[in-house]
Specification:
The protein has a single domain, classed as Jelly Rolls. 0% of the residues lie in helices and 49% in strands. With 144 residues, it is mainly beta. The strands form three sheets. Strands 1, 3, 7, 9 and 12 form a five-stranded antiparallel β-sheet that branches. A five-stranded antiparallel β-sheet has the order 2-10-5-6-8, with no helix packed on it.
C-alpha cells in the first residue's frame, strides 16, 4: 500500500543511501552483498549513483566491458532471490577515492517488504585491493 495523493510528498524524488558495511579486501569470486535494506512502502526506483569511499585498481580484463561491476538489485519479500535492475561498470584503471560513477538502471517497482540490495559482482576483471562503496538510490513512493 502506498501513500495518498493529498500527501505533500506525492511525486517527490527521495534518496536512500546504501553503504557497504565493510571493505572488500580480496578478489570477488561470487556475488558479495554489500548492503540490503527492506522498503517500508511501495516505490519506483528512478536512478542511482555509486560513490567510491575507498577506490581500487583492477586486475584482468572483461569480454563485455573494460572493467568489473557493481549491481543494484531487488529481492521479493521472503524469497531471497536476487534480480538485478542496475549496473555500474568500473573501468580498467579502477576508481579514485571520492569518485562518483553514474550507473545504468531499468526503472523498477518494489512492493512494501521487498529488499533493495547493493552487491559487488564476480567476473574476469576484478578489484585488486581494498574497496568500499556506497550508493545513492533515488525513488518515488507509489500512491493509491
Amino acid at each position: 500500500m502506498g501513500g495518498f495523493y493529498d500527501d505533500p510528498r506525492f511525486g517527490t524524488l527521495q534518496t536512500k543511501n546504501l553503504q557497504a558495511k565493510a571493505n572488500q579486501t580480496s578478489v570477488i569470486a561470487a556475488r558479495v552483498e554489500a548492503d540490503r535494506r527492506t522498503m517500508m512502502q511501495a516505490v519506483t526506483i528512478k536512478d542511482w549513483n555509486v560513490h567510491f569511499i575507498q577506490g581500487d585498481t583492477t586486475t584482468g580484463t572483461s569480454a563485455n566491458h573494460n572493467g568489473w561491476k557493481i549491481t543494484l538489485g531487488k529481492s521479493a519479500a521472503g524469497t531471497g532471490a536476487f534480480a538485478a535492475m542496475g549496473t555500474a561498470w568500473c573501468g580498467t584503471a579502477g576508481q579514485a577515492n571520492g569518485s562518483v560513477l553514474d550507473a545504468s538502471l531499468t526503472e523498477t517497482n518494489l512492493d512494501a517488504g521487498d529488499d533493495l540490495i547493493l552487491a559487488y559482482e564476480a567476473g574476469t576483471a576484478l578489484p585488486a585491493g581494498v574497496l568500499r562503496v556506497e550508493a545513492d538510490v533515488q525513488y518515488v513512493e507509489l500512491y493509491t
